[in-house]
Design goal:
The chain has 330 residues and is of the alpha/beta class. The protein has 15 helices and five strands. Strands 3-2-1-4-5 form a five-stranded parallel beta sheet, with helices on both faces. α3 crosses α10 and α11 packs across α14. The chain is globular, with a radius of gyration of 20 Å.
Length: 330
């Protein structure tokens, strides 16, 4: 179903309140196109006092860092960085990747990257520290719904409107908890130093209400306008490994994750994104297939995959060989 937006008029009512306009708004900035364009709108179109915050958990891409610096400089806004213990976070990813290779299950892939969920905690914390009226995250884009990730866990959760995880059906949250618990006991390698971090990630994902305003619950995600604005007004940096849309350019893990999904499941996050564009009438099926084929091409990804492997301290060739040995689901 096409997402029904709350509408720009409702968004303006929030911002045009005289008391609200005097206060700061804290905006989560990943360095991806969704958050950069959201920051642009909030500052330029709605004329708000905004502060940007980025949480670096160890896999913020170099392209994202450049774009964060570029847009904050051009908009002349304060930018706050919060950082995890990078060495520990990367060690957790390495431990969980090797554990996963012992007993591969596509439902367990998100556990590699559970460490980024602490962003929600820091967003709420920095909001109070800066005395900001509201925290804003640039999510809610329907094209980013990824039911297949919980589907691989045996859970049927319809993500209408790309809803927040704490709004999942409670029964499905407990099904996910049971799924993860079962896989932990079937594969003792998961009992490593990352356990506490992973438990915190589950809590922040499914039980932590950060009370943020999601900008794409109100306004349409217009791919052409977003691309035009960011290219012409800011001259943002790009990298071919993130595909034609430069989607998820803020994450160093994107290419690696999609290599796993595509190799073992037969489709990736890019295919999922393109299929939703087709259903929204934004793109033809032939064009989507053409773009997805390019975006899934290992030649475009290999440098990004090598970079990811180097960051977490694993041998790229060894890991890719092991993944290619795993039985396919198709």
């Amino acid at each position: 179903r096409k997402k029904i937006l709350k509408g720009e008029e409702d968004l303006k009512k929030i911002f045009e309140n005289k008391n609200n306009r005097k206060r700061n708004y804290l905006v989560g900035l990943s360095g991806g196109k969704d958050s950069m364009y959201g920051l642009h709108l909030l500052k330029k179109k709605y004329n708000l006092n905004v502060i940007a915050m980025t949480y670096d958990w160890g896999l913020t891409s170099d392209i994202a860092r450049k774009n964060i610096s570029l847009i904050c400089s051009k908009l002349k806004i304060e930018h706050i960085f919060r950082s995890a213990n990078i060495k520990n976070k990367r060690n957790f990813i390495r431990k969980n990747l090797y554990a996963w290779l012992k007993k591969p299950n596509l439902g367990m892939v998100p556990i590699f990257f559970a460490g980024d969920k602490e962003f929600l905690y820091f967003l709420k914390k920095v909001k109070h520290e800066t005395n900001s009226l509201k925290s804003i995250i640039c999510s809610g884009n329907q094209l980013e719904e990824m039911e297949f990730k919980v589907g691989y866990c045996g859970v049927n959760q319809h993500l209408y409107g790309n809803q927040e995880m704490y709004n999942y059906k409670l029964s499905n949250i407990f099904k996910l908890l049971l799924f993860y618990s079962k896989n932990y006991f079937l594969n003792p390698k998961y009992f490593n130093e990352s356990m506490i971090d992973n438990l915190k990630a589950f809590y922040y994902s499914f039980f932590y209400n950060h009370n943020s305003l999601r900008i794409y619950d109100y306004i349409e995600w217009d791919q052409l306008e977003i691309t035009r604005t960011l290219d012409q007004e800011y001259g943002i940096f790009k990298h071919q490994s993130f595909g034609d849309t430069q989607w998820r350019v803020g994450d160093n893990q994107t290419s690696f994750t999609n290599f796993i999904y595509y190799t073992l499941g037969g489709f990736s996050e890019f295919d999922n994104y393109r299929s939703k564009q087709i259903r929204n009438g934004e793109i033809t099926r032939d064009k989507a297939l053409e773009l997805a084929k390019k975006e899934n091409n290992l030649d475009f990804k290999i440098k990004a995959i090598e970079n990811f492997c180097n960051l977490i301290g694993v041998n790229t060739e060894e890991i890719l060989i092991e993944i290619n040995k795993i039985p396919k689901l198709y």
